[in-house]
Structure formats: C-alpha cells, structure tokens
C-alpha cells in the first residue's frame, strides 16, 4: 500500500501534516506518521502531538527524554494491523521528587499497560456480543494470545456489569436454575447458579430476554440476596415474577417482591410434561423387556418424537409413533402420558388466552387422579403451584419464550468456548452473550 499520493510530507521522518491518514485510521489522541506493509502486516506508526507534560507525582513541568516504541494490536482488516506507538518519555527534574522518568499515557489509544488498542477492545467486545466470537478466535485475528485478549476485555466487562443502570425498567423478571459445569464440585465449586432474566416486553409487545445476572447456588437465599442488592426502586418496579417450580425461589418472591404476581414459566412447565412422558416410556420399557432401551426396541426409537409437539410431527413420524404404541398393549400407557403432555402443552399454544386457561384448569383438576403415577405426580405438582400456573393466562403470556431463548444462547456459547473453568469469567461472558451488558 502506498502511503500518500500527493501533497504530503515524508511520513517517515516527521509527523505527517496530512489529516487523511488520521481520518482513515480514526484513532483518537494520536496521528499517523507512517503506514507500511511488512510481512503481511499493516504497520502504522503513530504518535501524540507535542505538548508540555507535568510530572504525575509533583506537577512540575517535565523534560522530554525521547521516545519509546510500543507495539499495539489494532482492529484487523484484510490483514492484521500493528500500531507502532512512539510513546513519549519524560523526566522530572525536581530534586525533591521521587519520580525519575515517566511515559505519556493516551487512554483513548490504549490502557496503561495494555497491548491492544481501546478500539480493538471495543471491536472484540462487539464480536463476542453479536457475532458469537470466541476469545481464541479473536486472539488469532489480532495475532496475540488468549490471555492478552481476555486481560484487555475483562476490565471493560467488569465495568459494564457493575453499572446498575442496566437493571432499570425491569417489570417482568424471570429466575432460573442454571448448571454451569459438570465436573467435580470439589474442583470448581458448586455446579448450580441462579440466573436472573429480564422478560419485560418492549413497546411493540415483544420480549427481548436479557440475562441480568448469575449468582452462585440454587436457593431462595441466593435470589433474595440478589433482590436486596438491587434496592427498593427495582423491586417495586417488578410486576410479574416468572420462575420454575422451585419453592425456594417462590419464597424469595413472596418476601422480596410483594407487589409482583408469581407466574410459572411456560418453558419449565412444558419440560415437566416431557420429562413425565420420558419416565413412563423408560418404566414401560423396563417392565416389558426387562432392560433399558436399546436400538431396535420399539419404544427406544420414538424418544425424540415423544418430545416434539404433535402439530410438528411429519406423517412418517406419526406412523412410527403409532407402530411403536401398537407393538405391545402395555405401550398404551406411554401413549396416554404423551396425550397428557400434549394437552398441557396445548394450553400454552392457544391463540385465545381464555381458552388456554380453560385447558390449564382442566389439566390441574384432572392430572392428579390419573392412574399413571408419573402423570399423577405432575398433577400434584401443578396443583401445588395452581395460582402461579394459571397466572400465565392472566398476565398476557408474561414469560413466553424468553427463558428458553436465553438458555439457548448460553448453551451455544458454552459449546463455542469448550467450557469455562472460572465462574467470574463465565458470568461475564454469558451476560455479554445473552444481552445483559449493553455497551
Ligand atoms: Zn515530579
């Protein structure tokens, strides 16, 4: 790449008076002295304009002691970019001052000990947030190490996470159990976290679920402590509190969110139904064949069909389901359980909320009498949670889809990063990916 086409001073020996390079590079606080290509890299030499500097210790006017070359990683384009920053070095001449020399700082360019430019840090955070990037991938693009990228990004994420303004305007709040690792808890601490999700609808009635926080432990205490930290204004603002059927969270809501309606999250209720069908299938399988499901067993091949919504099944899947049920009269139990789960699911899928509520009431009034023990147990759970279960239909589908969406993003990012060892890093990354940190 040629540097200047015309009307420009020699860029190598002196600061270029042409503002075009500065515009092209768009760096704050420094100007471009030279641009060249070296070994497939774009190398840009920059420096700050000359200006007097005071000693940071005593304030006495300092004496220039020349320059130091700092190599910085910048936002990559078609090739990687290196900035050579000719950083000014100063000396304090005050005989009473402890400080001998100091180097200039340009915070808009780079953090004091950083090697990645501020705008590259901003770029990296954007990539992590919107493009499902990984730290390893960003390190490759910048031509540096995982550690260097994370060291530059982490303090910015900490700052964003500490900004309480991100909790403003939350009127529908979800809470959810969250398993963050599957290794020995003696190695990595408790597996469970409690996750808080903003399920508030925007002016168009759409939920843009945001993961607000992840705190250690699965307990009402963990949730209550988090609610306390948010303060009165936040707690008074919450009108709907969605949750999975876990008594600890309900206690926290009753204690701390007195004005809020507790609502069972649709996603979790449907999951309870699916889990019950799965249990029936496994039990019947064991009873009829005396072993766990194997390839070729009629009930084994229909696991995923049983988990799907009936309306989404293809003709082929329906035929397979029917064949599996007909293979043995004992399989009728599986079919009945499946129908129950479908009925439960259909309450949430009604266009008309009143019709949905009618189905939900029927479910809660009948399931506990079902001769299939797994369905009866589901029925008893729903009866215990009757008010919160039915509240979904009187709060305008308050929790629909949001929790599921956030869980999906978390799963994706966990896979992308191939696991996390540090809970604080995990929290920051998940908050960023799931919309909780808005730069
Ligand atoms: Zn000094």
UniProtKB/TrEMBL annotation:
Residues 173-430 form the Transposase IS204/IS1001/IS1096/IS1165 DDE domain. InterPro entries: Transpos_ISL3, Transposase_DDE, Transposase_HTH. It comes from the Bacteria. Residues 104-153 form the Transposase IS204/IS1001/IS1096/IS1165 helix-turn-helix domain. This is Transposase. It comes from Microbacterium lacticum.
């Amino acid at each position: 790449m040629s540097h200047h086409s015309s009307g420009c001073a020699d860029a190598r020996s002196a600061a270029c008076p042409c503002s075009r390079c500065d515009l092209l590079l768009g760096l704050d606080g420094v100007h471009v002295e030279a641009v060249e290509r070296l070994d497939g890299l774009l190398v840009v030499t920059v420096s700050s304009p000359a200006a007097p500097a005071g000693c940071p210790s005593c304030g006495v006017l300092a004496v220039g002691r020349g320059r130091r070359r700092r190599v910085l990683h910048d936002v990559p384009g078609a090739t990687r970019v290196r900035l050579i920053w000719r950083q000014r070095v100063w000396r304090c001449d005050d005989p009473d001052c402890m400080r001998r020399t100091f180097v200039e700082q340009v915070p808009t360019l780079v953090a004091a000990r950083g090697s990645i430019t501020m705008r590259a840090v901003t770029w990296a955070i954007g990539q992590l947030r919107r493009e499902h990037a990984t730290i390893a991938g960003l390190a490759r693009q910048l031509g540096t190490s995982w550690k260097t990228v994370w060291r530059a990004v982490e303090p910015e994420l900490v700052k964003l996470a500490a900004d309480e303004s991100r909790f403003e305007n939350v009127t529908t709040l979800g809470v959810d159990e969250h398993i963050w690792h599957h290794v020995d808890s003696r190695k990595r601490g408790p597996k469970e976290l409690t996750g808080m999700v903003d399920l508030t609808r925007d002016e168009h009635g759409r939920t843009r679920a945001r993961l607000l926080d992840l705190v250690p432990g699965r307990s009402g205490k963990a949730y209550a402590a988090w609610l306390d930290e948010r303060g009165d204004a936040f707690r008074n603002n919450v009108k709907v509190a969605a949750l999975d059927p876990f008594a600890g969270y309900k206690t926290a809501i009753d204690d701390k969110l007195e004005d809020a309606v507790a609502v069972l999250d649709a996603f979790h209720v449907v999951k309870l139904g699916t889990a019950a069908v799965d249990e029936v299938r496994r039990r019947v399988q064991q009873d009829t064949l005396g072993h766990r499901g194997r390839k070729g067993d009629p009930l084994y091949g229909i696991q995923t069909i049983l988990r799907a919504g009936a309306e989404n099944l293809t003709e082929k899947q329906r035929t397979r389901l029917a064949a599996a049920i007909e293979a043995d009269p004992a399989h009728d139990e599986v079919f009945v359980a499946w129908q129950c789960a479908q009925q439960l699911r259909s309450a949430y899928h009604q266009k008309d909320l009143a019709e949905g509520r009618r189905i939900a009431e029927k479910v809660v009034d009948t399931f506990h009498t079902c001769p299939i023990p797994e369905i009866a147990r589901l029925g008893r759970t729903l009866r215990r949670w009757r008010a919160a279960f039915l509240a979904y239909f009187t709060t305008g589908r308050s929790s629909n889809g949001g929790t599921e969406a956030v869980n999906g993003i978390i799963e994706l990012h966990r896979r992308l990063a191939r696991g996390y060892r540090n809970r604080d890093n995990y929290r920051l990354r998940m908050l960023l990916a799931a919309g909780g940190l808005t730069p």
